[in-house]
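Marked as duplicate of an earlier ticket. Keeping the data here for the record.
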Amino acid sequence: MQSEKIFLKTKLPEPLTEENQNKIGETLIRLKLKIDSLKLWKEEMSISQQRSKINRRKQMYEKKRDRLRELIIISNLKLVVRRAKNAFFKRQHKMSFGDIEDLIGYGAIGLCEAVDKFNPALGQFGNYAKYWIDTYMQRYIKDLLSITYIPFTKNEKVINMILKIKKAVKN
C-alpha cells in the first residue's frame, strides 16, 4: 500500500504540446550544430597544432641541414686548395694575370654546388666534388684566357673561314 501512495504522490510530467515539442527540437538542433562546430574547431585546432609541430620540425631539420652543409664544405676546403694549386702551377705560364685566391674561390663555389647536388647513390663525395671543383676552376681559367669554345663539329668551318679572312687581308 505504501508503494501505491508514493506512486500517487509523484507528479507525472504533463504531456508536451506541439509548440513545446518544436521548441525542444529547435534547441536540440542548435545544440547539435554547436557540438558539431566544436568538434570541427577541435579538429582544426589539432590540425593547426600538427601544422605548427611540422613547421617547427621542418625548421629544425633545415638548421641541421645547413650546419651539416657548412661542416662538409669546411672539411673539404683542403681539397679545393690542393686542386687549385695543381691547376695554377700547371697553367702558370699561360695565366699571365689572375690570383690563386680567385681560383680557390671558384673552386669553393664548385664545392658548394657539389654539396647541394650530391646523391649518395652516385658514389663517394670526394670524387663527385672533384668534378664540380675542376669544372668551376676551368670556367675561371677560360674566362681569364678569353678562350672561345668551338664545338668539334664546327672546327673545319671555322678554320676555313679564318684562312679566307687571312687571304683577304693579305690581298
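See parent ticket for discussion. The mean pLDDT is 77.
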